[in-house]
From TrEMBL:
It comes from Sphingomonas turrisvirgatae. PANTHER family: BLR6218 PROTEIN, OXIDOREDUCTASE WITH IRON-SULFUR SUBUNIT. Coiled coil: none annotated. This is Isoquinoline 1-oxidoreductase. It holds the Pfam family Fer2_2. InterPro entries: 2Fe-2S-bd (IPR002888), 2Fe-2S-bd_dom_sf (IPR036884), 2Fe-2S_ferredoxin-like_sf (IPR036010), 2Fe-2S_ferredoxin-type (IPR001041), 2Fe2S_fd_BS (IPR006058), Beta-grasp_dom_sf (IPR012675), Diverse_Oxidoreductases (IPR051452). PROSITE patterns: 2FE2S_FER_1 (PS00197), 2FE2S_FER_2 (PS51085).
Length: 147
C-alpha cells in the first residue's frame, strides 16, 4: 500500500508501487484534469505539484512519493480562482485546452518561488509543450498573475 496526500486528502493506493502517479491520479482517483500527452516526460501535460515543485507525474512512481503532498489542477484553488487561472482567462491563453492544466500547475509553482519572473525565467521554468502555440499568451498571463 502506498500512502500520500492528494489535494489535502490522504490517499492509499493498492497499486503496484511502480505505477506512475499520472495513472494513479487519473484511474484510481478519477482526477482526470491531469493529462496524458507523451508518457516520456517531454510534454508536461501531466504536470502536478509535489511538495511545492512542478513535477511530470508520468515520470514519478507512486512508491517513490510516500508521505508527500500532491496537488493537482482540481486542488489548486477552491473555485478555479487561483491568480494563474484568472490570468489565463484574462489573457485568452486557452486554445484547445488539453495542455492547460499542466501549464497552470507549472506556472503556479514558478510564481511561488519567483514573484517577479522575467520572460527568460518563464521560458526556463515552463517547458511544457503546446501544439496550438499559445506561448506568447502564456508569457503574458504569467506576467499578469505576477502583478
Ligand atoms: Fe508526462 Fe508528457 S505525459 S510529460
Amino acid at each position: 500500500m502506498t500512502r500520500f496526500t492528494v489535494n489535502n486528502q490522504p490517499v492509499e493506493y493498492q497499486l503496484d508501487p511502480r505505477t506512475p502517479l499520472l495513472w494513479a491520479l487519473r484511474e484510481a482517483s478519477n482526477l482526470t484534469g491531469t493529462k496524458y500527452g507523451c508518457g516520456s516526460g517531454d510534454c508536461g501535460a501531466c504536470t502536478v505539484d509535489i511538495d511545492g515543485a512542478a513535477v511530470r507525474s508520468c515520470q514519478v512512481s507512486i512508491g517513490s512519493i510516500e508521505g508527500t503532498f500532491v496537488t493537482t489542477i482540481e486542488g489548486l484553488s477552491a473555485n478555479n480562482d487561483h491568480p494563474v487561472q484568472r490570468a489565463f482567462l484574462a489573457a485568452n491563453v486557452v486554445q484547445c485546452g488539453y495542455c492547460i492544466p499542466g501549464m497552470v500547475m507549472a506556472a503556479a509553482a514558478l510564481l511561488r518561488r519567483n514573484r517577479n519572473p522575467s520572460e527568460e525565467d518563464i521560458a526556463g521554468a515552463i517547458t511544457n509543450l503546446c501544439r496550438c502555440g499559445i506561448y506568447p499568451r502564456l508569457v503574458e498571463a504569467v506576467g499578469r498573475a505576477a502583478r
